[in-house]
Write a structure and sequence with these properties.
mainly alpha; FBX48 protein
Length: 77
């Protein structure tokens, strides 16, 4: 799980590890974020007609840099 989360959230996980968090805490802090971020980056939510069409777990608190990555991916599609 740690490696799959890091594949999507490298900056976030490396930052947490650099701040002294254990792998367990780092995974707890980033697991759901990595799942949601991967779905956004893969284009799963690129063509939704309205916010009510989004699945319940399509949002997760993310920082500005993470949303920037998602928006850049959308612009490249």
């Amino acid at each position: 799980h740690c490696l799959s989360a890091r594949a999507v959230c490298r900056r976030e996980i490396d930052g947490d590890r650099g701040n002294g968090y254990s792998w367990k805490i780092t995974l707890l802090r980033n697991y759901w974020k990595s799942k949601v971020k991967q779905e956004w980056l893969s284009g799963k939510y690129s063509n939704v007609p309205s916010q009510t069409s989004l699945p319940e777990k399509s949002m997760y608190p993310m920082d500005v840099d993470t949303w920037g990555e998602i928006l850049e991916a959308e612009l490249e599609r």
